Amino acid sequence: MPNPSRETYSHGHHDSVLRSHQWRTAENSAAYLLPWLKPADRLLDVGVGPGTITVDFAQRLTDGAIIGIDSAPAAVSATLRLAAERAVSNLSVSVGDVYDLEFPDASFDVVHAHQLLQHLSDPIAALRQMRRVCRPGGLVAARDADYEAMTWYPPSAALTRWLELYHEVTRANGGEPDAGRRLLSWAHAAGFDDVEASASAWCFAAPVDVGWWSETWAERLSQSNFGQQAVEHGLTDSAELAQLAQGWLQWGRLPDAWFSVLHAEVLCRCQCLALRRRFAPRSIFK
Question: What is the pTM of this model?
């Protein structure tokens, strides 16, 4: 079992990262799950980040309860502050470990993770834990970006190098930047038989959105943990990071600049062992 204290979050928690993540909502980041939610659901959100999606869930599940966990105390604090600002009372948040969820079996109707599995050294083990705490008939929902499938226009040598560097850093940290295309296979490997896979995208095209997106990445390269890790792994130096940051800013000012982020999603229906035996090939249960 992986040691969560040895997992490295490639983005870190610099303000540039938090500003980017605070843009996320249940509507723009969990639309594939929203039609399935019921007001009285009990939901576990694994990896809450700054809490914007988590608090959105809490406001929707008016008769339910939300529990959020994150390995980073800073993320827990941010989520608690946001919940207080929005006067949300059906949400509790704490530091937790996805590899060792401190909840009994079948505790939740829905278990959700957004942009989490790509940062883990063993995403299949994480999905197995999420399946364990989900009740029979409940849903495990996961959404992750696929960096290799990201695309932009006009072409930019700086962005091409940034993407190459991002792959190198994330894999040096034990993660998988192209997690999106692997979600369905990971769900099957974790023991889910009933999986609905889909895809959706974020698109930054309006000048204000492209400018914001490029500025956050320029700042991440020059000031966040991502840039520091890239240097520590011997993959780049401060001079190149400065050049790439400037390249992002220059690209973001182009009148035709357009950027799209592809995501994969899985909705995994949990089944009790008896149901799985009923529909599984007989040879498996001899």
Answer: 0.89
Tokens 């995994």 found at:
268
Residue 30 lies in a domain: yes
**Helices 238-252 & 157-172, crossing angle to 10 degrees?**
130
Residue pair 52/21 in contact by the 8 Å Cβ criterion: yes
Per-residue tokens: 52:
């914007």
Alpha helices (runs of H) in 30-152, residue ranges in sequence order:
52-60, 73-85, 123-132
With cut-offs at 50, 70 and 90, classify the pLDDT of residue 32: very high
Structural domain of residue 64, as residue ranges? 4-273
Domain count of the chain? Answer: 1
User: Residue 35's domain is classified under what CATH number?
Assistant: 3.40.50.150
Give the HSE-up count for residue 166: Cα atoms under 13 Å, Cβ half-sphere: 23
What is the C-alpha to C-alpha distance for residues 133 and 112, in angstroms, rounded to an integer? 11
